[in-house]
């Protein structure tokens, strides 16, 4: 980490953050809280996809699939045994388990990571649009499996009546973790090999970067946070259904990453905030004119305008200067890359 | 440029947070949650039209309890996140009750929030019979349950169409169509019939040639085919089945209650189609006639499907409940609604007489011959 | 599982595949020349379908006139999309162009919902096109034959355009290296605009056929053909026009045969099987069926 600010600034910011979250949780009304919670979850998704798509340049459309896996695993683990018996037909050892939120979330993330490994081993030799189609295929396969494996997922009806465990603490705690991990990865030699791989895979290979392993790792780390986000989502809506984890959601997250700047963590967070909040801001407009669909059109226009003026996204590949006082780390700029990105 | 963006955002959040409630207690607010854009829009949009029309008519007659009804239409974009935040928004705006949706998935995202706040939620179009059980005692259904309508059409299939061997096609991606098929097949077997073929498709499918070829080759031959589909696939499936030269009766539930079932195949091919639905189409009751006339006057077109009538009824039911409750209070409204007896809705009479809280409404069996609709019979469930 | 049954299912697959191939041709025209995924392609199909409906219903014009009108409206729409979404993104990373076209797609869909309402409408072609023909035990309709012939004919015409005309040569040069092509004096803007016009005109014609075959259209119908054409083009080999056609047929056959030839209980898993098969094809042929090894620009 190359943050050159004195330690106590970070401590003050942390305390301030904790106070803000505590105050908000206590004072704001449910509507505002739900928006802010969703904003946070989308931010986690954007940051995690930024790792896969942004750093490593993998055109992955499968992210909602990891969300779904994480979400369902978390939901099944937190459901009390009686409700499990009512809805599902699980094997004995699973039917009795009932976990608190944190282990369930971590289990969801782990399940997603495991799936990512398996997926990655098969398709990560592909690149570009071919990878896009393959990951789209993964997403559809996951959706079909969820819709039909009724004994485990209850099919299209999904699971409802989940405990409303998600609140600002969990969401922003998760976001902090995702940002921290992403930041650490980005400014490490591992991250530099990823960025090198994205810029020019042939040259990176010549320098000794193991393309395949780097890609699988990028997919797996991104998948972990997507799985956690899925678990948070399920316990925010208190229901989980297969239809939510669609190709349309994949597009939404890709939009956030691209608009923020592929490779920029700050960009991903900002874009997630802008897009999740903006649809709520445009809502009153829609309702007063009774012209439903205007919010979508305006959002699309905003998107186009942003892309026209900043085709590389709001922040490009960088983080804003005030956060990274010190030499900006770009591939080709740092002596460590020349050494082949050894871990 | 980034800073101004952030600044504007911060201001916006600030205003949302402090919440400037223009305390307009002169109106009674109802939150109407519908998917007005996205895949479910063709089903939900007419329902909102119906709901707003009912509010307008009631206000013209002086409103309820001396106040005007205000229906706040919220678009939840066929998206679960929007459904959850939309419900929260409605609750934050001081609604006395919520209504909406034609599909169980979205009801489950919104209704529990109303239950928690102690405000009733009335679904206009979701038909799963276990909804009140899952959500709680503040959940109310305007339509009948899928079990009732499946039994009705199954009885018709075996007794009136004399079909013993039935093929069943199910849209496997929607809980509504799956539940419908499940209840239908159970009833067919109870009545001594056999399901000779079970085939599947998905919402959004356009081509049924594979399933049709299999249906043609089925042995024993099917006397009728039950297509458990929603309106988007209703017309398409009838058209393709008939185009392939198959003349066997096509049977379904209220997903087939749409103009598409006659317009897409065309009058020549729209033949021997039978479906169960809400008692409204081709019905001569004064409520129905008045509704259709009012809808055409307001929107310059006839009601697109039964969901328009159901949305109309949802608001009507809530208004009726409010009148009987005598005050604008969540619990009082809930109790009044639960005690509803014989409310004359456009889609039939509503009485919550059963412990499952699913209304015991009549089910209309409608036939389509040469592109014309006709009510064959009205099936009444056991009270 | 008789021979007749299998034959019918194969014919069904070919018919569906022709429909997808027809949509994929226009898509691959743009994809092949400008290397950009145009997500609004499906929505131009939708516009073509609605323009057809409008011209048929309000003007009662004969079919050939309608076809020309549709072609022109599609071409015009394509030029507009190019100007609005793609020209400003030139030089930006590829995925930016994709997102821009996604934005255009969202706008078109929601404009459709606002102006036309989301209700599906029926679409009635003249009766002679709907007639059923039988060859042995296999049945299909006149319109299906028309679609198949159109797909093949248009592919032929397109290949002629790309390989035998000056415009085609200009397009191929632009595809290979934009800057050098510009240095050679090729009018880049006009060439790219022509590619979009041709590709989108083809999309609109595909919309006419789509409406005629299925008989039902709505403002959201573009999503499915858009996605299928993207998948078909990629599977067939990115950038190859015959590849896109082949990809369309592979997709259509897979969709029908995975339902028709497996026991009915698996029909619900159709999409999973189709994509699993596609992934296997990609693993065996990482550049698609007819694609060449990744073009590494210097």
Could you tell me the CATH topology label of the largest domain in chain B: Rossmann fold
Number of strands of chain B: 14
**Main beta-sheet strand count, sense and barrel state of chain C:** 2 strands, antiparallel
How many domains of chain B? 2
Question: Over all CA atoms, what is the radius of gyration of chain C?
Answer: 19 Å
Structure write-up:
The complex is a heterotrimer of chains A (343), B (383) and C (298). With 343 residues, chain A is mostly helical. Chain A has a single domain (30-338), classed as ABC transporter involved in vitamin B12 uptake, BtuC. Chain A is built from 16 helices and two strands. Chain A has helices spanning 7-27, 30-55, 63-78, 81-87, 92-95, 101-123, 128-148, 150-153, 168-186, 189-199, 201-206, 211-237, 247-260, 265-289, 294-309, 335-338; strands at 159-160, 239-240. A two-stranded antiparallel ribbon of chain A has the order 1-2. In chain A, helix 2 (30-55) runs parallel beside helix 9 (168-186) and helix 3 crosses helix 12 (211-237). The radius of gyration of chain A is 20 Å and the shape is globular. Mean pLDDT of chain A is 85; it is low at 332-343. With 383 residues, chain B is α/β, with parallel strands linked by helices. Chain B folds into two domains: 25-145 and 285-362, Response regulator (Rossmann fold), CATH 3.40.50; 147-277 and 364-379, Response regulator (Rossmann fold, 3-Layer(aba) Sandwich). Helices cover 44% and strands 20% of the residues of chain B. In chain B, helix 3 (80-92) packs parallel to helix 4 (104-117). Mean pLDDT of chain B is 89; it is low at 13-24. Chain C is mostly helical. Chain C has helices spanning 3-34, 41-59, 63-86, 94-116, 127-130, 142-164, 166-176, 178-183, 188-214, 223-236, 241-260, 270-284; strands spanning 121-122, 132-135, 138-141, 216-217. The chains are: A mainly alpha (343), B alpha/beta (383), C mainly alpha (298). Chains in contact: A-B, A-C, B-C. Chain A binds chain C through residues 53, 59, 122-123, 125-130, 132-134, 136-138, 140-141, 143-145, 147-148, 202, 247, 251, 254-255, 258-259, 262, 291-294, 296-297, 299-301, 303-304, 307-308, 311-313, and chain C through 37, 84-85, 88-89, 91-93, 95-96, 99-100, 102-104, 106-107, 109-111, 113-114, 227, 230-231, 234-235, 238, 268-269, 271-272, 275-276, 278-279, 282-283, 286-288, 294, 296.
């Amino acid at each position: 980490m190359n943050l050159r600010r004195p330690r106590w600034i970070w401590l003050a910011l942390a305390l301030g953050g904790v106070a803000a979250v505590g105050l908000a949780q206590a004072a704001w009304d449910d509507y505002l809280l739900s928006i802010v919670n969703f904003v946070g979850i989308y931010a986690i998704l954007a940051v995690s996809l930024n790792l896969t798509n942004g750093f490593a340049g993998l055109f992955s459309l499968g992210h909602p699939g990891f969300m779904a896996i994480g979400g369902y695993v978390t939901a099944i683990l937190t459901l009390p045994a009686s409700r499990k018996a009512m809805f599902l037909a699980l094997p004995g050892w699973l039917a009795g388990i009932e976990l608190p939120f944190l282990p369930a979330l971590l289990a969801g993330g782990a399940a997603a990571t495991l799936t990512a490994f398996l997926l990655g081993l098969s398709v990560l030799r592909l690149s570009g649009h071919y990878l896009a189609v393959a990951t789209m295929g993964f997403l559809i396969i996951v959706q079909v499996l969820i819709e039909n494996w009724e004994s485990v997922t209850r099919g299209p009806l999904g699971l409802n009546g989940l405990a409303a465990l998600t609140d600002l603490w969990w969401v922003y705690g998760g976001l902090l973790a995702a940002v921290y991990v992403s930041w650490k990865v980005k400014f490490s030699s591992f991250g530099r090999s990823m960025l090198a791989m994205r810029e020019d895979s042939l040259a990176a290979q010549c320098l000794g970067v193991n393309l395949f392993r780097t890609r699988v790792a990028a997919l797996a780390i991104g998948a972990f946070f997507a799985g956690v986000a899925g678990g948070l989502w399920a316990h925010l809506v208190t229901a989980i259904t297969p239809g939510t984890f669609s190709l349309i959601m994949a597009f939404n997250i890709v939009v956030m990453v691209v608009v923020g700047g592929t490779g920029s963590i700050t960009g991903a967070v900002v874009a997630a905030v802008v897009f999740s909040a903006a649809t709520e801001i445009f809502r009153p407009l829609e309702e007063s004119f009774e012209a439903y669909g205007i919010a979508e059109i305006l959002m699309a226009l905003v998107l186009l305008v942003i892309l026209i003026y900043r085709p590389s996204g709001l922040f490009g590949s960088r983080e804003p200067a005030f956060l990274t006082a010190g030499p900006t780390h770009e591939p080709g700029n740092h002596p460590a890359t020349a050494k082949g990105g050894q871990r | 440029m980034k800073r101004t963006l952030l600044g504007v955002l911060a201001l916006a959040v600030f205003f949302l947070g402090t919440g400037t409630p223009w305390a307009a207690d002169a109106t009674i607010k109802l939150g109407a949650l519908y998917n007005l854009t996205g895949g479910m829009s063709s089903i939900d949009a007419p329902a909102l039209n119906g709901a707003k029309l009912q509010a307008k008519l009631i206000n013209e007659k002086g409103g309820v309890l001396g106040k005007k009804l205000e229906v706040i239409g919220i678009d939840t974009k066929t998206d679960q996140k929007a459904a959850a935040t939309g419900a929260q928004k409605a609750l934050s705006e001081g609604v006395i009750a919520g209504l909406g949706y034609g599909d169980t998935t979205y009801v489950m995202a919104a209704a529990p929030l109303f239950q928690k706040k102690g405000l009733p939620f009335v679904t206009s179009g979701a038909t799963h019979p276990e909804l009140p059980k899952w959500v709680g005692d503040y959940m109310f259904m305007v339509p009948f349950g899928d079990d009732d309508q499946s039994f009705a059409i199954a009885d018709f299939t075996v007794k009136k169409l004399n079909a013993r061997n039935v093929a069943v096609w199910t849209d496997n991606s929607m809980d509504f169509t799956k539940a419908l098929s499940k209840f239908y097949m159970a009833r067919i077997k109870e009545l001594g019939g056999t399901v000779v073929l079970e085939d599947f498709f998905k919402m959004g499918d356009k081509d049924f040639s594979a399933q049709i070829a299999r249906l043609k080759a089925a042995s024993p031959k099917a006397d009728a085919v039950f297509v458990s589909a929603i309106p988007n696939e209703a017309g398409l499936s009838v058209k393709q089945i008939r185009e392939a030269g198959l003349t066997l009766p096509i049977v379904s539930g209220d997903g087939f209650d749409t103009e598409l079932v006659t317009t897409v195949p065309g009058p020549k091919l729209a033949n021997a189609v039978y479906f169960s639905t809400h008692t409204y189409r081709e019905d001569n009751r004064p409520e129905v006639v008045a509704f259709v006339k009012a809808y055409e006057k307001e929107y310059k077109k006839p009601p697109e499907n039964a969901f328009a009538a159901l949305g109309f009824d949802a608001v009507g039911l809530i208004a009726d409940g409010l009148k009987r409750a005598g005050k604008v209070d969540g619990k009082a409204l809930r109790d009044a609604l639960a005690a509803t007896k014989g409310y004359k809705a456009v889609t039939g009479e509503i009485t919550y007489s059963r412990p499952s809280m699913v209304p015991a409404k009549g089910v209309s069996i409608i036939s389509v011959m040469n592109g014309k609709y006709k009510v064959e019979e009205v099936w009444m469930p056991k009270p | 599982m008789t021979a007749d049954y299998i034959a019918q299912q194969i014919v069904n697959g070919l018919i569906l595949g022709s429909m997808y191939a027809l949509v994929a041709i226009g898509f691959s025209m743009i994809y092949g020349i400008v290397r950009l995924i145009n997500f609004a392609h499906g929505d131009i199909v939708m516009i073509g379908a609605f323009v057809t409906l409008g011209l048929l219903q309000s003007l009662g014009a004969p079919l050939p006139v309608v076809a020309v009108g549709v072609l022109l409206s599609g071409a015009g729409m394509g030029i507009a999309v190019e100007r609005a979404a793609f020209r400003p993104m030139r030089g930006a990373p590829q995925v930016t162009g994709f997102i821009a076209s996604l934005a255009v797609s969202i706008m078109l869909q929601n404009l459709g919902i606002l102006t036309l309402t989301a209700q599906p409408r029926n679409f009635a072609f003249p009766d002679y096109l709907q007639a059923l023909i039988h060859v042995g035990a296999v049945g299909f309709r006149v319109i299906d034959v028309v679609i198949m012939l159109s797909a093949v004919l248009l592919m032929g015409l397109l290949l002629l355009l790309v390989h035998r005309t000056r415009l085609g040569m200009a397009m191929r040069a632009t595809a290979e290296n934009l800057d050098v092509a510009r240095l050679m004096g090729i009018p880049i803007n006009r060439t790219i605009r022509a590619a979009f016009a041709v590709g989108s005109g083809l999309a609109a014609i595909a919309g006419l056929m789509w409406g005629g075959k299925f008989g039902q259209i709505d403002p959201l119908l573009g999503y499915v053909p858009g996605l299928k054409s993207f998948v078909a083009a990629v599977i067939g080999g990115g950038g190859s026009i015959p590849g896109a056609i082949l990809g369309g047929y592979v997709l259509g056959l897979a969709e029908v045969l995975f339902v028709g030839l497996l026991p009915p209980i698996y029909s619900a898993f159709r999409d999973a099987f189709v994509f699993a098969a596609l992934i296997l094809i990609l693993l065996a042929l990482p550049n698609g069926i007819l694609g060449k090894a990744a073009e590494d620009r210097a």
